[in-house]
Amino acid sequence: MMDPVLMGLGAVIVMTAFLGILRIQRGPSGADRMLAAMLFGTAGVALALILAEAAGAGGARDAALVFALLGAITAVAFVKRAWGAGD
Amino acid sequence: MWIVVSEGDLASLRAGVPSSLVAAGVSLALSPGRAPSVSLPGLVRFIGFFLVHSVRGGIDVAMRAIKPSLPIDPGTVTYRLRIEPVSVRVLFVNTLSLLPGTLSTHLDGDELIVHVLDCRGPVISDIEIVERRLADVFNITLRSPIEERA
Amino acid sequence: MDFARIALTVIEYALYAAGAFFFLAGSIGLLRFPDVYTRLHSLTKADNLGLGLVCMGLAVRSGSAIVALKLLFIWMLVLAAGSTACYLVAESARSAGIEPWTREARR
């Protein structure tokens, strides 16, 4: 049985990610949309950790680790793609 | 590190030990030069400083975000870096973005452009404090004393 | 349930509540702040603190030192990734010629 407190916490974090979708809609620049992707990264890590605890599946913590790494790579990829390799 | 990641699962060490060694070797080969020496008391003080201020940074920005009047007065300042070498500079630039009200936006030679959420405060002296604290971690003497700044 | 256990549960839930608050505030800032730079402030500081608090709550709950260390490690990784990503996004916004919003420009 899942702890209702953990479920509530997870629900709030999902909600914050939905607010991020509004920012994607409004833009105005690509950088603003990238912010929402950063938000999904952090929220995704938090959610995976909460699920790991709630479902008793320690493996989900490794998923959180991967999310954290992907978050870093995504931002670098975005910058390379959006404004050229630069320096 | 592997033991922590595998949550103490000793059976996984068979795969973990070789891959950890390879990873350590690769990152040593990729990182330029030797790492500057670390002062333990300086490091402990810096971690304490960092934790307190990143909590303050979070509270500060959260309060500004939810207040109906949106009390921000953003701007940019140019800060002349004194800290060396480059690896520590990168750490400094990143740390600054996590502390209250400052956000590193551009590094050009010795000049760091910092975006400030509210320019009404003592921004430059706050940045100097962070730089000094970080310098203490690596036993670095900053090139010019704080009193010399214009 | 003994007293220590209840106290720990209270601490755990308080950490969750604080964490949820900062996640929410970070997103509100993301919507309300006027430009990409100020939104970055909101996101990097508030969300990273929110995640740190949630990790601390989960560490208290697990009662295991090794899980707590792993949570700390994940949080530090997100901090490093977040602040680097933050710098890169700010830098690219700057080189794309996005001017920071100021009070003066509005007056």
List the keywords:
heterotrimer, B: 150 residues, alpha+beta, 3-stranded antiparallel sheet, 5 helices, 3 strands, disordered C terminus, C: 107 residues, mainly alpha, 86% helix, 0% strand
Number of H- or I-type helical stretches of chain A: 3
Question: Oligomeric form of this entry?
Answer: heterotrimer
Approximate shape of chain C: elongated
Mean of all residue-level pLDDT scores of chain A:
73
Task: Tell me the total number of β-strands of chain A.
Answer: 0
Radius of gyration of chain C: 18 Å
The biggest sheet of chain C, with number of strands, parallel, antiparallel or mixed sense and barrel status, is: none
Order of helices and strands of chain C: HHHH
Computed CA radius of gyration of chain A, to the nearest angstrom: 15 Å
Helix content of chain A: over 70%
Cα(first) to Cα(last) distance of chain A is: 53 Å
Can you tell me about this structure?
Chain A is mainly alpha-helical and 87 residues long. Chain A has one domain. Helices cover 83% and strands 0% of the residues of chain A. Chain A is flat and about 40 Å long. Chain A starts with a helix and ends in a 5-residue tail after the last helix. With 150 residues, chain B is of the alpha+beta class. Residues 145-150 of chain B have low confidence and may be disordered. In chain B, strands 1-3-2 form a three-stranded antiparallel sheet, with helices on one face. Chain C is mainly alpha-helical and 107 residues long. Chains in contact: A-B, A-C, B-C. The A-C interface holds A 5-6, 9, 12-13, 15-17, 19-20, 22-23, 29, 31-32, 34-36, 38-39, 41-43, 45-46, 49-50, 53, 58, 61, 64-65, 68-69, 71-72, 74-76, 78-79, 82-83, 86 and C 13, 16, 19-20, 23-24, 26-28, 30-31, 36, 39-40, 43-44, 47-48, 50-51, 54-55, 58, 61-62, 67, 70-71, 74, 77-78, 80-82, 84-86, 88-89, 91-93, 95-96, 98.
